Every structure is written in structure tokens, then in C-alpha cells.
Task: structure prediction
Amino acid sequence: MTASGQPAVAPVDPPVDLATTARAWIDLYATTMRIAIAEQFQYRVANYFYMIGMIAEPVVYLVVWTTVANQQGGSVSGITSGEFAAYYIVWTLVRNMNVVFTPFGWEFRIREGQFSGLLLRPVHPIHWDLAYFAGWKVVVIILWLPIAYVLSLLFHPTAHITPLGVVVFFISIWGAYIIRSLNQSTLGMATFWTTRVGPLFSIYFAAELLLSGRLVPPQLLPEWAQRLASILPFQYTFAFPIEALIGDLAPEVLLGGLVMQGLWIVIGASLAQRSFAIAIKRYSAVGG
Result:
């Protein structure tokens, strides 16, 4: 009751304006991406050298498997040397799209006390990383085109590209980026309990290397490994985007892959949110 004898009325939260909220999120991501694009174009030479340095890995895989294919009559498990070339050339873009904020970044922020400043911002720290690295990917795609052209001249890829495959590829490389970002951020939150995340990340990396299609196309894996890879997120960050572009996959296969990406994005976002809510209770800055 109030002093005048009237019943007290509990304060009511103002209604949420969904349109305004959506515009705020779009503005956050668009602004952060523009900053990243401007910064990374200023360092375009450094970006080129970084990307060229990453070509060594797929070129080694490509030379090995094309040699094996040629020695076995032109193909391995139905994959020709030209198809190996197409796979690993597209691999170079997918790999660069999959460069995300790593668990070691979380470790550094927490150890150096930088995380305190991030907590003063009005949104979850993951959003800043997602937006900034997404802007960097725009630069990566543009810089990748001449690299792909040179690799195509050298290795003569054979691909079965369709308009639908191109559309699904463009969607799926961003889906792969989000899945990997969420997975590695969730893994990075282990540093709220330990100051070193290296051993845990090594286990994750080994599983990703073997089951994602990063080391070899999925068709070359044993049948049990292919079944396991089909239900884990790793394949949908590497092999699926590549095969969507070059594999001439059936529409239902392409749709199924996008559905699995969507599922793992939802799972990854839920795990990241829940893990952060638990982990932040343990946070204390240890840097100077």
C-alpha cells in the first residue's frame, strides 16, 4: 500500500521493440565489419603473405594424392587427380574462412586482464569477435581469387560446378565460420578454470584434422569414420562447403548439409552461452 492508501503497483518493464533491437544488432555487426575491412586492407600485403604461407599445407596434400592417383591408374576411391586439385584449391579459401578467434586468444585475454574491459561492453564478447573476423573474411575472399587462379593454372582442377552449388557454397562457408567460431570460443572458456588451454585444444585439433576433410577428402576415410564424421560438426566446417561447390551434389544432400550446419550453430550457441554463464562466475583478472 502507498501512503495515500492506494495499492502499490509493481513497475512494469517497457515492451521490447524488436525492430529497434534488430537494427542495433545489424549496426553493431556492420560497423565492426567495416572497421575490420578498413584495417585489413591497410595490411593487404601482410594478409597476402599470410595466405600464401597457408598454401604450403594443401599443396603438400595435393602433390601426394595426385601422385598416388596417377600411380593407381588416374584415381583413388573414384577421385581423379583433377578432382583432388579442385578439392584442395577450394580448400585454401575454406581454410582461410575458418581462421577464427582461438582458445589461445581467450587464454591471453584472461591471463593479461584484458577480459575485464570486454565485460564492460553491453554485449557478449563473442559478438565482437564474430563481427570483426567476419569483416576480415570479406578481405580474404577478395585476396583469394588471384591465388586460386594461379593454383588452377598450375594444377588443372576438374570440378562439377552448378549454380545451386555456388549458392550453397557461399552460404556454407559462412556457416562453417560461425560453427568453428562458437566451438573454439566455448573451448577457450576452459581458461576460466586453467591458465593453459593447449592440451585440450590439441585433442580438439586432432579430431578436427582427421574427421573434417581437412587432411583428406571424406571418401578416403574408413566407413566407420565417415559415419562418425557425418554427425560431428567438423565435416560441416571443411568438407561440406568444398564438396558443395565442386562435387555436383544432389539438392537433398546440399539441403541436408545446410540443415546440419544450422543444427550445429544452434548447439554451439547454446553451449557457448551456457558455458559463459557458468565460467564468468569464476573470473578474476590475473594480469598487471
DSSP finds twelve helices and two strands in the chain.
